[in-house]
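Help wanted!
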Amino acid sequence: MITRHRLRWRIQHWLEARLPGLLTCAQFQEMVDAYVDDELGPVVRATVDFHMKTCPICQRYVIAYGKVRDFAADTLSAEEAEALDVVPEGLVTAILAARGVGGARGGGPNS
Amino acid sequence: MLEGGGGLEAGWETDRMGAPAKTSPAATPADDAAFIAALKAGDERAFERLVRDQGIRLLALARRMMRDEATAQDCLQDAFLSVHRSIAGFEPHGSLGGWLHRITVNACLMRLRTAKRLAETPIDDLLPDFNGNGLRLGEPRTEIRDPETELEVNRVRRFVREKIDELPDGYRIVLLLRDIEGYSTREAAEMMGIAEGALKVRLHRARAALKTLVEPLWDEMGSS
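Answered by r_m:
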């Protein structure tokens, strides 16, 4: 019985023989960042889009990849929004004091 | 150094209505010419105002980069000492806020570099695998869907935050600079002291590794 991997391999070789310039998954992977960051030119983008149409695994990969990138940005920006609204007084004092001694290091609140 | 800004146009000390300036970030006249002039002249009150107003977001930045409060505070102190030393040479081509942001990033990077925390360490186990024909190995996992409820949003944020912190610093910082702080590849590469190509490779590995690390949450959410 033919395995799923073997079938994909056969299909890809069949397509590569007829459509030169077709990407392998490994070549596609190298373009994932430029794809999700929208930095690809129209021709290369079309090649990447075509690969995704013929490879559902890569299609799911790139969708998940973009979402994780967005979740990371959302997570950290939400954290900033919840950050405290004043600088700790001890830190302000330490910064102002250190400046007064000519910017010498080692006098920080945690040094 | 001038004490209390005597003799200066102290217009930054009052808002447009003439009321005393508030000490909230929104009220910071960060790009106000008079305020910058006061800083350049060594006005103590202007500098303190800068620390109190801009320090809030800069401390949040240092916390993101350093992962612990004590080191983040030390970095903020380093950053403001750099500001104090170099404010006289500040040319307002860009914004004062952007300049401060960059100085704080550099202060954090300096500490990370000194502690040898920026080295590129192997994370191959977290990266996708391919066979000899370039075919992706492994089946797709549970589809990563957007969180639907407030509870899920918070759970995702908490989990993603934990996983970002699990990345080695050499990757985590690249991810922060490019995807969170909004620096270009060229700017981030300059800050990290590596070539643009090397930065792109690190960013790709960081994103791919983070994807691998956070996927189990969707397996759990899909089954719960």
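OP: Thanks! One thing I noticed: The two ends of chain A are 68 Å apart (CA to CA).
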